[in-house]
Amino acid sequence: MKHIGLAVVLILFLTGCEWLRDYQEYPSDITIEELQKQMNESSDPDGLYRNAHSYIMKQTLTRKGIFSDDDYMVEVKFKRPGLWKTTTFKDNKPMNAVMFNGRKAWIVDYRTRTSTELTGTVLARVSHMQTLLLPDSTFQDSFEKVALTQYRKNGIEYYKIVGQNTGFDPITIYIGKYTSLPKRVETREVLNGMKVNYLSIMDSYAMYDRVMIANQNTVVVDNTTSISRVVQYRLNVELSDSEFLPAFD
Questions:
Q1: Which of 2, 45, 101, 116 could pair covalently with 244 via S-S, beta carbons 3.0-4.6 A apart?
Q2: Torsions phi, psi for 13 (to 5 deg)
């Protein structure tokens, strides 16, 4: 499924209820399968993304502060059948990464040269997120239960997808009715032992490597706002499997 702003991925939580007020929700006029087809045609008209064996995306990430902003670089790598890695850099030096090699997942701290293997529900959530990153995955592949409705807010029409996996908060995705592109993603996650709200807004889209992707996102985790901007996006790059295992130079 077209990456929903991911890299970043990992990357998703609802905040602020103001947007949810003064809205209308009613049955969808199309099926989930029809919506998925429309989304593919809008974002990947030539099927290049759906058939890609790998990709790499780099984004600048600006975390807004009261007195000053912090700037980072986030790099996402994906390789079939289901390997991915998201690395955060500060001043061109890797700080940390989350990686999944198809079976196991780790959080890596490059500053302390340590890695922690993820297990239990955290590993399960990472596995679900990996499915979302697959170029040819569908909503039904990613979620055990999927609900589709139409949604009108401030005169703008959306399709609303609510995906649910057992034991986790749902992920809600708002898709422009006339663009067939994701506009907003909301969920709740456990972060450092606490439930947090996550919101990702796709501010704009642009064509990269003949694929339409969100080239700017506003991400809000509880009260912290970050702005991400795509600076590189390439399909079918050569990646070694060893890149998706914790290692230190």
A1: 101
A2: -165, 135
3-class secondary structure, 106: strand
- Quote the pLDDT of residue 14: 35
Q: Cα-Cα-Cα-Cα dihedral of 42, 46, 52, 58, to 10°? A: -50
Helix (H), strand (E) at residue 89: strand 83-90
Contact residues for 78 (Cβ-Cβ < 8 A; gap 6+): 54, 55, 56, 84, 133, 135
Coil, strand or helix: which one is 148? strand
SS3 25: strand
**What pTM, to 2 d.p., does this model score?**
0.85
Residue pLDDT, tens place only, 165-217: 998 899 999 999 999 999 999 998 776 677 889 999 999 999 999 999 999 99
Relative to beta strand 54-63, strand 224-235 is antiparallel
What mean pLDDT value characterizes the chain?
A: 88
The H-or-E segment that residue 43 falls in is helix 32-43
Residue 39's SS3 state is helix
**CA 46 from chain center: how many Å?**
22
**CA gap 116, 18 in Å, rounded:** 38
Contact (CB, 8 A) for 174 and 166: no
Q: How many degrees, rounded to 5, is the angle at CA 237 between CA 231 and CA 204?
A: 30
102: left (phi over 0), alpha (psi -120 to 50) or beta: left
